[in-house]
Each structure stands twice: as structure tokens, then as C-alpha cells.
């Protein structure tokens, strides 16, 4: 039989009161103050493996990392067309307009004030005054004051100030810069002081997943440390033919440019140069120039102030799987020559459009970027053995490299077609299997594309009306009959695709189209 809960609680409460009262009486009888003792559980303490601290690395490398303040010469406002920044258009106001009268008086007064200031400052204002225009990061690579940063940090500067991690400010001079790799070298005079400096890491030992530490000057805050891992290698971000960036997920922001990313041995793995960010802040995708690239460029800049690169002088494009099949290549590797520039080292050596560069000095070429890096790493005047794939056979030529022009990345887009042939009278003929309708070109060079079937492979590959076909399988064509003849030869040889050279206003390119139908 269940007991009444109220009676049970009442008896329990009475018993507790009796016990407490008894304890109090006993305490008073002995002269000891009455205390009620309570026991608590121990605080949470989890025994788990501890993540390695970066503190030792940071302590060692921080003195070598600096902030770079860039100053540019600003012309006096009196020398500018819009003298006082008031905005153009006031001269067009009516003469009796109050604003025109006001601004005219203001300009006269400002002109008088600047004339007095100019007399006091002498010739300094004639040359312009230095104003801070940018901030970035950098790091020492020698005890006598050579330091590395990004070209885009210093490119607009007339004077440079280096701020050490202890706040010391030192003037620096520009030793050299290389826009193509976005690297620059500065030099400070420490008046006998020896600077803490860092060494380069070995690129071959950098692995995806390795811990890295970035140190720099984000948003002008001074020495700031972030950590992450190497996320990827060999990234191409479209900044130039020498793209080969290390991607890291350490927080890198504006002002980190030119700063180093270290491994846990305190060696420079890369130089922070770009971020991917829809917001402008770090989203965990940053790109660094690899140590090996930076080491070679920096050494050249210190030695000569500029970087001279070898030049082949050919326009190139990737070899896709379709193109490889059309040319009889077993693998889609190498760089397809679209056009050699007139008078270039490549043309003089006999390289032709439609050739595939497969190796340089026996080292296989993976793609156009790989070829550009290999040629660019060599000195002008160097003789190199260039392996080619031409007309289904391997060949080689010896090229004496030229000097890469200052305004060129790889080669010119100049057309290198055969001399013009007189146009042949023929009506437009639909190459139905290819989805193309063609006709004579206006200049007699190649075959004009007058229509493209939107459901065809040609349309999918970006072939457009108004462009023209200059060659098929590296054979010059001047009418639809020439195209049909080359395609028939390709089919007879067991090919399933043909390589079309397409000329447009943007230049020339190769497109592989299927020829199995029909």
C-alpha cells in the first residue's frame, strides 16, 4: 500500500531539523563554532594530446619580418589643371552666378597662399612632396639588410621606409623588381647593425597538409601571426605565364603582401602575394610565390637589378585530349604552337604552327605554363634542344633563345600564314558533318565561316560565324574542297578527329573536331 507523500516529506523534514539542532548543541557544548561542511566535484580536466605551439617559431622569425611603408611623390596642386580640386565646370557658369564669383575669389586667395608657401619651401614643392600611398610586408634575407617584398607593394613608390618589429624605422632603397613574378628587393643601411634574417625552404620537401605560419602587417596593424596548412601546390590564378603558386589557408589579408609564410623550421616556404576573396578579407584561400622561384629571382635582382628571360617567340595553347587524338599523340601533353612570331628565335629555328613542343633539353613539357617557365628560367643566348611532334613524327630543333621583350609574356599573335592565294570562285558549301557552312574569305587567306549549327560540336567548341579556317591538320586550306580533301586523308589514316586552325580578331587557336560521321 502506497504511503502518503505529504506525510513522508513532513517526517523527513522534521528528522533533518532534529539532526541539525543536535549538531549545533554539541558544538556549543564543546566551545567549537558550528559549521556545516559541503563537498564539491573536481573541475573538468581532460588529458588529451596537445597541438604543437608555434611560439618558438614565431619568437625566432619575428625580428626578421618587417612592415614596408611606401611613399610616392605628389605634385603640388598648383601644378594641376584642376588647381584646387574644386571640380571642372565652374567656368561654364554665368558670370553673375554667385557660385562662380565665390570660387573665383577662393582660387585667387589660394593662389596667393601657395605662392607664399612656395617662396618659403624653395624648390621642394616644384618636385612634389612625399606622401604614404601603400603598406605591405617584407623580410630580411641577409644580415647586411637585403629584404624581399612584392613588386605590387613598391611599384608606385618613390621612397620606402622599413619598420622593424621593435618599432625602429629605417629608410630603404629599391635594388630591383620583377613584375612577372611580383617580387622586389629593398636594401636598408643599418650603419653596421646585423639584422636577423631567414633562409629559404626546399620546395621539394613542401607537402600538402604541412603546417605553415604567416607573419606580416595586415591592415597596417604591425607584426601579426596566423597559422594554417598548405592547401595545394602549382596553382594557376591567371596572373601570368609563370603562375605556380602555393595555396595556404592561413589568414592573409591586405597588408600581408610581401610577407613570408614559414614552415615549422622557420624557413620561408613562400611569399604571400594574392588572396581569393569575394569580401576583400580572408576566406582561407591565399597564394604564395614558392621559395625556389623567389630564391632564383631575388638572387638575380641583387646581382643586376633586373631579370632577363629567355624567349622562344611562339604563341602556344594547351594540348587537349581531342587535339592529341587529332595529331596522333598518345597523351595530351606539351604545348601546341599556334603561330611563331616573325623573326623570333623559334621561327628562325624552323618551328611551325601546328607543331607540339614536347620537351626542352630532354625534359618533358607538361603544358604551355610549363614551357613558359622552362624557357623563362634560361638566359638569353642559351642554345636549347626543343623536341617537337610534327606530322605524326618526333623531331627536334636547336634554338638560340632571344631576350623576352619587356611588354611580352610569351609571343606575339602575329599571323604567320602562307602568302595570299587568289580566291577561287566557288559557291558556299555546307560541311554538314561538322556543322559548318563556309565560303571564300575576303583576303583569300583561308576559308570564311558563314554559319555554325548551334547543335554541332563546332559550336560547343566556340567556333563562331565570321571567323575563318586557315588550316586543317596543319595543311593550308583556301576552299571547302581543300577541307574535304584533308578530312578524307585523316579518315583514311584512322583518325577520328581533325585539327582546325581558327583565325579571329582575337588571334589564332586550334580546335579539334570529330570527323567520324558521314
UniProtKB/TrEMBL annotation:
Residues 406-416 have a biased composition (Polar residues). Belongs to the peptidase S1C family. Keywords: Hydrolase, Periplasm, Protease, Repeat, Serine protease, Signal, Stress response. The keyword Repeat applies. Residues 106-129, 405-428 are annotated as: Disordered. Residues 313-367, 434-479 form the PDZ domain. It catalyses: Acts on substrates that are at least partially unfolded. The cleavage site P1 residue is normally between a pair of hydrophobic residues, such as Val-|-Val. Residues 1-34 form the signal peptide. Pfam families: PDZ (PF00595), PDZ_2 (PF13180), Trypsin_2 (PF13365). SMART domains: PDZ. Its EC number is 3.4.21.107. It is found in: Periplasm. Residues 106-123 have a biased composition (Low complexity). The keyword Signal applies. This is Probable periplasmic serine endoprotease DegP-like. Its main location: periplasm. The lineage of its organism: Bacteria, Pseudomonadati, Pseudomonadota, Alphaproteobacteria, Hyphomicrobiales. InterPro entries: PDZ, PDZ_sf, Pept_S1C_Do, Peptidase_S1_PA, Peptidase_S1C.
Amino acid at each position: 500500500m502506497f504511503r502518503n507523500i505529504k506525510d513522508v516529506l513532513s517526517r523527513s523534514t522534521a528528522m533533518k531539523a532534529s539532526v541539525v539542532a543536535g549538531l549545533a548543541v554539541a558544538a556549543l557544548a564543546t566551545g567549537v563554532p558550528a559549521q556545516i561542511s559541503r563537498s564539491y566535484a573536481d573541475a573538468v580536466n581532460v588529458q588529451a594530446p596537445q597541438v604543437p605551439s608555434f611560439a618558438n617559431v614565431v619568437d625566432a622569425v619575428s625580428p626578421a619580418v618587417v612592415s614596408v611603408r611606401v611613399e610616392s611623390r605628389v605634385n603640388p596642386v598648383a601644378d594641376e589643371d584642376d588647381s584646387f580640386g574644386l571640380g571642372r565646370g565652374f567656368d561654364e557658369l554665368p558670370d553673375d552666378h554667385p557660385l562662380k564669383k565665390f570660387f573665383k575669389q577662393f582660387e585667387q586667395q589660394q593662389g596667393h597662399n601657395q605662392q607664399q608657401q612656395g617662396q618659403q619651401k624653395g624648390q621642394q614643392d616644384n618636385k612634389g612632396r612625399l606622401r604614404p600611398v601603400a603598406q605591405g610586408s617584407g623580410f630580411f634575407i641577409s644580415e647586411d639588410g637585403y629584404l624581399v617584398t612584392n613588386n605590387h607593394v613598391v611599384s608606385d613608390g618613390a621612397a620606402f621606409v622599413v619598420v622593424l618589429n621593435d618599432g625602429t624605422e629605417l629608410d630603404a632603397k629599391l635594388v630591383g623588381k620583377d613584375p612577372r613574378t611580383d617580387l622586389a628587393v629593398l636594401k636598408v643601411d643599418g650603419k653596421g647593425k646585423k639584422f636577423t634574417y631567414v633562409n629559404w625552404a626546399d620546395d621539394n620537401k613542401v607537402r600538402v597538409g604541412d603546417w605553415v605560419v604567416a607573419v606580416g602587417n595586415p591592415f597596417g596593424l604591425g607584426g601579426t601571426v596566423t597559422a594554417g596548412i598548405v592547401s595545394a601546390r602549382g596553382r594557376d590564378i591567371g596572373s601570368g605565364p609563370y603562375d605556380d603558386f602555393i595555396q595556404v589557408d592561413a589568414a592573409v589579408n591586405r597588408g600581408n603582401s610581401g610577407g613570408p609564410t614559414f614552415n615549422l623550421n622557420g624557413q620561408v616556404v613562400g611569399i604571400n602575394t594574392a588572396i581569393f576573396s569575394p569580401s576583400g578579407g580572408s576566406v582561407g584561400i591565399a597564394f604564395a610565390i614558392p621559395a625556389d622561384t623567389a630564391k632564383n629571382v631575388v638572387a638575380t635582382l641583387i646581382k643586376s637589378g633586373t631579370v632577363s628571360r629567355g624567349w622562344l617567340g611562339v604563341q602556344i595553347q594547351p594540348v587537349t585530349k581531342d587535339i592529341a587524338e587529332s595529331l596522333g599523340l598518345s597523351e595530351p601533353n606539351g604545348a601546341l604552337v599556334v603561330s611563331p612570331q616573325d623573326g623570333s628565335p623559334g621561327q628562325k629555328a624552323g618551328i611551325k604552327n601546328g607543331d607540339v613542343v614536347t620537351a626542352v633539353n630532354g625534359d618533358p613539357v607538361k603544358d604551355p605554363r610549363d614551357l613558359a617557365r622552362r624557357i623563362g628560367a634560361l638566359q638569353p643566348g642559351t642554345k636549347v634542344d626543343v623536341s617537337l611532334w610534327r606530322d605524326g613524327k618526333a623531331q627536334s630543333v636547336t634554338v638560340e633563345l632571344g631576350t623576352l621583350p619587356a611588354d611580352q609574356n610569351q609571343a606575339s599573335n602575329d599571323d604567320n600564314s602562307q602568302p595570299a592565294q587568289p580566291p577561287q570562285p566557288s559557291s558556299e558549301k555546307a560541311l554538314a558533318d561538322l556543322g559548318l557552312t563556309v565560303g571564300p574569305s575576303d583576303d583569300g587567306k583561308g576559308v570564311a565561316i558563314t554559319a555554325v549549327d548551334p547543335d554541332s560540336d563546332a559550336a560547343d567548341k566556340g567556333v563562331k560565324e565570321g571567323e575563318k579556317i586557315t588550316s586543317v591538320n596543319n595543311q593550308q586550306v583556301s576552299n571547302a574542297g581543300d577541307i574535304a580533301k584533308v578530312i578524307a586523308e585523316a579518315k583514311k589514316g584512322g583518325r577520328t578527329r581533325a585539327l582546325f586552325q581558327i583565325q579571329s580578331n582575337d588571334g589564332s587557336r586550334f580546335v579539334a573536331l570529330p570527323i567520324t560521321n558521314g
